[in-house]
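> forwarded from #structure-qc
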């Protein structure tokens, strides 16, 4: 039986040494609990602008098990990095963790034991709390509130890419490799029944996921779950009804010209919202365009 640990890396030079130190401890624990287990480590450097790739190469030399490091030509995004890793490595199970040490790799042995015990295809690690600044916390809460209002059950606060999936999940996920995807939500959509395990992100580590990336992920999520786009129809209908009512009231002499102007401005504000939704629709068509073949994104690949 083979377990592949998959780690996308982007500008994580400050965390590489500590990450590998913890991975070596995880490797020892797995080999102790599962003597017949074949362990593999797949690092995908997502076009880092620092020394992440070089540091990973140095650490891989003393990793102690088989491994592979892939460097991409440019920053293609975490989801593409994960898809490339899945395409490049065959295993029975895949553990996906972050390189910033916010997802504790020490949890992998327990997760691996539980997914095998339950004979499940997916086990998700869910954050018990989110150690974010006030602004990001407010934005995150607002986003998930909006998701609930639109009935998107696949979205859950505390969800992360920290998971272990079976080779069956890998096979199904790779059927979508020709289009851009959001990995965690694709897995959730394909396999809604899964096991969950809680974890606490480290407070002293700082995530490299900026507010800009957070906004883009939120926008892509709206696109991925097209329920959000249905709000556009509601805005158009409401705006047309309001405009029609205003015209009728004006013609009947029920409102003054000044009041009509104010109400017209309100309608204009609704139209701006409609325009914003149309921008999202345009982004949707850009998002779902065909993904370049992953082989064209790889700069180099080395095995250890």
């Amino acid at each position: 039986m083979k377990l592949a640990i998959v780690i996308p890396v982007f500008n994580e030079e400050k965390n590489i040494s500590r990450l590998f130190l913890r991975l070596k401890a995880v490797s020892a624990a797995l080999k102790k609990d599962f003597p017949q287990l074949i362990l593999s480590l797949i690092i995908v450097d997502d076009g880092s602008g620092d020394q992440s790739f070089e540091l990973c190469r140095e650490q891989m030399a003393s990793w102690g098990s088989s491994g592979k490091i892939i460097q991409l030509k440019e920053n293609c995004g975490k989801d593409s990095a994960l898809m490339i890793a899945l395409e490049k490595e065959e295993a029975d199970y895949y553990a996906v963790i972050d390189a910033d040490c916010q997802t504790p790799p020490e949890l992998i042995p327990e997760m691996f034991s539980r997914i095998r015990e339950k004979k499940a295809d997916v086990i998700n690690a869910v954050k018990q709390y989110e150690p974010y600044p006030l602004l990001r916390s407010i934005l995150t809460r607002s986003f998930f509130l909006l998701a609930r209002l639109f009935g998107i059950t696949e979205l859950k606060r505390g969800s992360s890419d920290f998971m272990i999936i079976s080779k069956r999940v890998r096979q199904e996920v790779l059927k979508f490799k020709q289009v851009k995807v959001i990995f965690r939500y694709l897995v959730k959509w394909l396999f809604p029944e899964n096991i969950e395990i809680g974890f606490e992100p480290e407070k002293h580590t700082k995530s490299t996921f900026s507010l800009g990336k957070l906004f883009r992920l939120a926008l892509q999520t709206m696109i991925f779950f097209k329920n959000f786009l249905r709000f556009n129809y509601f805005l158009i209908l409401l705006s047309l009804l309001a405009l029609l009512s205003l015209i009728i009231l004006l013609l009947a002499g029920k409102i003054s010209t000044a009041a009509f102007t104010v109400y017209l401005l309100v309608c204009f504000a609704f139209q701006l919202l409609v325009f914003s939704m149309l921008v999202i629709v345009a982004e949707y068509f850009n998002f779902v365009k065909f993904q370049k073949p992953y082989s064209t994104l790889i700069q180099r690949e080395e095995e250890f």
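QC bot note: The chain has two domains: 2-211+291-303, 226-287. Residues 246 and 261 are 10 Å apart (CA to CA).
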